[in-house]
Amino acid sequence: MQVPQAKCWCGGYVHLKYQTLRQGKRIWDDLALEIQAEYGRRLSYRQIKVDLDRRLHSSDGLCTLNQKVLPLGSTEGSSPRMGQGEVPPVVRLGGIWITVTFATGETRTDQTGHTRLVKQAKKVPILAAQGVWPTTGRTRLLAWMRADSEDFASWQKFLEALYEASLTPENGLALLV
Q: How far apart are CA 132 and CA 129, in angstroms?
C-alpha cells in the first residue's frame, strides 16, 4: 500500500495519522496473519513476497516478512503426522544456519530525529528432515524446526517430534542419514 509522506516547506516531515495503518506499521493486521499462515504452509519468504507484490502492486522487503513470521516462536516448525506407506525409506537430516533480526527493546534517535527500535541479528539453525524414495527418485521436505543451536538437546527434540509423527521403522523407515 503506497502511503504518501508529506514534507514541509522548511524541509521537515509532517506527521499525518491514517485510519488504515497504525503509526510505524507497514502491513495491516489481517495481512500479517495471512503472511504467517502462508509461512505455516511451508512457503518461503521469497514465494510469499512474490505473491504479495503481485496482489498489492507494491514491494515489501524480506525483512518485513521476517518481522511478521518471527512472533511464531523459536521452536515452531512443521512435523505432519504420517501414515502407513507415507514414510520414506531414507531420511536425510541437516541443519541450515540463517540470520534473523529482532528488536532488543531499546530505542535510538537517528540523524533525522526519528526514534527507531534497536535491532540485533542472531544466527540460528533450521533443523530439517528430507524424505527420499530411492526407487522413484522422489524427495520431499518432511519437517523442520527453528532451534537456538545445533546441540544434542535440539536434535533430540527434533528427532522425538519426527518419531511422534510416526516416522519409525515399523512404518517403513530404513535409514537416517
A: 10
